[in-house]
Amino acid sequence: MTIQMIITLAIVIGMIVMIMSDKFAFGAPPLIACVLLVLTGCATMSEAFAGFVDKNVIMIAGFMVVMAALEKTSLIDKVKATMFNMASKGGYRNYILLLIVVMLGASVMSGTGYYVLVLSLVSTIPYNKNLPISKIFMPLGYATYNPIVPVNMAFYVGLVASLLESSGVTGTAVPLLVYSGIKLVSSIAFLVWAVIGYRFLPDHPIAEAGAQASEQKSEGEKLSRWKEIVVYIAFVVNFVAMIFLDKLGEPGYAIPGVIAAVLFVLGILNFKEVRNNIASPLILMMAGVIGVAGALANSGFTAMVGDAVAGALGTSVSPFVIVLVFTLLTSLSATFTGASFGSLFVFAPIAISACVSMGLDPTAVAVACVTAAWINWIMPIDGMPAMILGMGKYKLVDFWKFTLPLYVIQILVLCGACVIVFPM
């Protein structure tokens, strides 16, 4: 290993430790790492901060503004009300319908805010023997990360593209619809298990936890009818543009930003809302880690490890096994550290380099690793599983009865779908 490799690796490890520690604001560790790369001479200023002019990051930043506008519409309010009413009625049929409603909501909303909203609402529902809250609380929590109509996948498609490009793989594009299809297959696998796994969960009230949970309410004024129509049109235009991104070329990446500007000019979003979404901690995290991953690749470290892994696996190993190995490494690391981004940007570049060294197309493993970085809930370490375990008053054994089978099913389905869709 060269001195540059050692220094760059030390900075990457330090970044991961900072992310795991939760002592730093979300998005700050990659920025600190970028500065250290420049100060140590391991990367130029343009190389370290390349993520901030990355076309995928710019596109996703604009898309997040559009999603913020969509969350202010009456459609989202209706989704919330429907979810509460169905759970209150009880019955196995309503449980399945409620799962679908939450998964539909996950199609346009995601992240911490959504799962906190869902769990907070469900935990306030009185105990019903026909549909015990303890039996639906966990499945509904995980449903928030399994969209049944995956239309807001631009962030993940951008991550795949950035990982491939930063690893030196060019000319490979993952269409939004194709990625959405893979995510849909994973979500269907979740739905099948949730219908079955419901029966293995305990029956007990969780009223005390519900009493402590506060229902989140929408901030700001409600949109007028014409503004809502504009938001719906903006969302559809944005979605269609991302579908045909490969045909639109470079101008297509600017469309979400243009739409965001229109929403601001029309008064649908104020400047603070636009600014907070364009420069959100999530965008800072994504932009920062692109430069860090690029520096690690430029040092030769990822290629060296990739060659070593390729040599260890041999030439006769099945492509499915290769994808499965790196998917498990990414997912388990994210599970036990709670650092999805850190785990992804360590193992994905190595996985891509290993595939390149073996003469294989790395698209499948890149897609699988990006998706698996957020399948990190078989241990109650990260926010959502920890919240489910605590508020749901589950024992760890009860927790694993649902999560372990789900984890195995989704990982196998994900790897299989990636290898089929993106032949290696």
Walkthrough of the structure:
The protein has helices at 3-21, 28-39, 45-48, 55-70, 74-89, 92-106, 112-123, 133-143, 154-166, 176-197, 207-212, 225-243, 245-248, 250-265, 271-278, 281-298, 301-313, 319-337, 340-357, 363-372, 383-391, 396-421. It is globular and about 65 Å long. The chain has one domain. By secondary structure, it is mainly alpha-helical. Helix 9 (154-166) runs parallel beside helix 16 (281-298) and helix 18 packs parallel to helix 20 (363-372). Residues 208-220 have low confidence and may be disordered. It is built from 22 helices and no strands. Keywords: Membrane, Repeat, Transmembrane, Transmembrane helix, Transport. InterPro entries: Cit_transptr-like_dom, DASS-Related_Transporters. Its main location: membrane. It comes from Ruthenibacterium lactatiformans.
Write the H/E string, N to C.
HHHHHHHHHHHHHHHHHHHHHH
Strand content: under 5%
Whole-number count of domains:
1
| Average pLDDT score | 81
Give start-end ranges of low-pLDDT stretches: 208-220
- Shape label: globular
Overall strand count: 0
Q: First CA to last CA: what distance?
A: 30 Å
Domain Citrate transporter-like: 16-334
GO biological process, one term: transmembrane transport
Protein name: Membrane transport protein
InterPro entries: Cit_transptr-like_dom, DASS-Related_Transporters
